[in-house]
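hi!! sorry for the late reply, been swamped w classes. u asked for the two structures so here they r. pasted raw, havent cleaned anything up. first the sequence of the first protein and right below it the tokens
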Amino acid sequence: MKTRPKVLFFDVNETLLDLKPLKNEVKDVLNGQDHLLSLWFTTLLQYSLVVSASGQYKSFGQIGAAALQMVAANNDITITEENARHIVVNALQDLPPHPEVKNALNTLKNEGFTLVALTNSNDESLKTKIENAGLTQYFDDLLSIESVGKFKPFTEVYNWASNKMKVKPEDCMLIAAHGWDVAGALWADWRAAFISRPGQQQFPLAPETEINENDLQKVVDILVTYK
């Protein structure tokens, strides 16, 4: 029988919140070209790592807007910095939770788990999006990488989060729908559960997560059996 993690950390975007409204906004700007949508998100992640690796910090929304301008320019689409920021930042603030999320979080809360959001979004954006999604009451704390100045999956982020919650890395579990995020957590000596949302896969060169399910409720059904 596996032991319960002392703290469950949740990625937010795509793990808990549905990115479809954001993707639709971006897709419209990119003239409805589906392949450019995935390229934009990949570019966003790439440059968040470039910023962190260079010892710099810009908000996730700022980097997302810059990535949108880059992808648009490479495809002869003109978008101003102001419009790009308006699209990305506003859409990120108002994302709905996936259908099973509220019931799943409620179950964990009733079972006595400590729940913490850990996201690449900045503090203000994190608080707003969790509130807008109606999830505030489920969380014991909301943690943004803004306090660290580096983005996940840098090890410093996971170390900071475990220290913030006053628990050892091995007592932490990250629940996320991104292969790069659970890989970073596992390499930081955390435990991890992967939610295989559509289009998401684990990184084959990383350690395997102990839980791998296609929605949060199924992850929760396993967690509540832990002692």
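now the second protein. again sequence first, tokens right under
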Amino acid sequence: MNKPLVLVVEDDLPIQNLITTTLRAHEYHFLTANTGEEAIMETASHNPEIVMLDLVLSDLDGVEVIRRISTWSNLPMIVISARSEDTDKIDALDAGADDYLTKPFSVDELLARLRVTQRRLNMIQNEAAAEASVFTN
């Protein structure tokens, strides 16, 4: 199974390093962004397949980043946040996030959520390919 390109949006460098080291060790391709505006720009210019996003960023709230990206893309977004209130989770999911992981998290859970998201991506891509290969006369 090919590893997807993951955009990691995290302004806390130790956490960003943990995530990217984990991705590198498991042969994922990744990009990083430290701000919400940078995340939007990276998404538009590099077309990642999955976004992993912190909600607390220096310039924009992560929910706003999700809303903006969701207006022109349906790529899967996994929120990784210290915010653990139900309202925060609901706001992020309603804005377009596909999953929500609360800090602190285990590396195994992070990888499991990536695998789930990747399975969904593969299923969607396979369905699209099957539809494109059907000829109707």
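hope this helps!! also noticed smth abt the second:
Helices lie at 13-25, 36-46, 62-70, 86-95, 107-132.
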